[in-house]
């Protein structure tokens, strides 16, 4: 007996007072956990979606959010740091370019593997790469655009000239021939 109340009465009063408070706290905790998981899933989905298009702004944006959304998850942040360090390393000479690109790809797959494990997915590292699709045309288009931008930049800086090739009009040419130039010089002796 405490203050004239039996222990059963005290437990009942405590349940009436603390029950709603604990229910709200549990709901808030569950909602925060679900929101955190959803944000992590969004980052993971964006990286999975763009793993064959690494110059895509969505890929770069998601990569920059990994450190924030997976804060405190050492396997993920460790894999991220290793991958980012490799991204910042200078390109090697052409003989080592294939090995360098393969290593960069492996590091991204390691990052995706660690993120998947943290989110409850059990992907094989090789399947992450093998089961992704990116049209070859995308890569070709990006390479062509990069090459053309480089040439245009060199021309604008005066390092190369614009090549001009004279052409004779043909029947297939949709443009009319150039007009004939008449001699309009003043007659001699005036």
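^ Assign residues to that structure.
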């Amino acid at each position: 007996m405490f203050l004239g109340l039996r222990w059963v009465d005290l437990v009942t009063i405590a349940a009436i007072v603390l029950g709603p408070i604990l229910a709200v706290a549990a709901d808030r905790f569950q909602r925060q956990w679900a929101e955190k998981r959803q944000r992590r899933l969004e980052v993971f989905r964006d990286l999975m979606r763009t793993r064959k298009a690494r110059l895509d702004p969505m890929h770069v944006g998601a990569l920059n959010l990994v450190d924030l959304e997976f804060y405190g998850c050492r396997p993920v942040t460790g894999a991220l740091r290793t991958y980012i360090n490799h991204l910042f390393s200078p390109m090697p000479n052409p003989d080592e370019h294939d090995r360098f690109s393969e290593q960069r790809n492996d590091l991204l797959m390691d990052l995706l593997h660690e993120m998947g494990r943290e989110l409850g997915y059990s992907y094989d590292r090789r399947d992450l790469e093998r089961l992704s699709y990116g049209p070859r045309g995308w890569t070709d288009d990006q390479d062509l655009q990069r090459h053309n931008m480089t040439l245009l930049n060199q021309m604008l800086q005066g390092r190369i000239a614009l090549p001009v090739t004279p052409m004779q009009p043909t029947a297939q040419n949709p443009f009319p021939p150039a007009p004939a130039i008449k001699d309009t010089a003043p007659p001699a002796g005036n």
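Helices lie at 7-49, 57-69, 74-88, 97-118, 125-130, 136-156.
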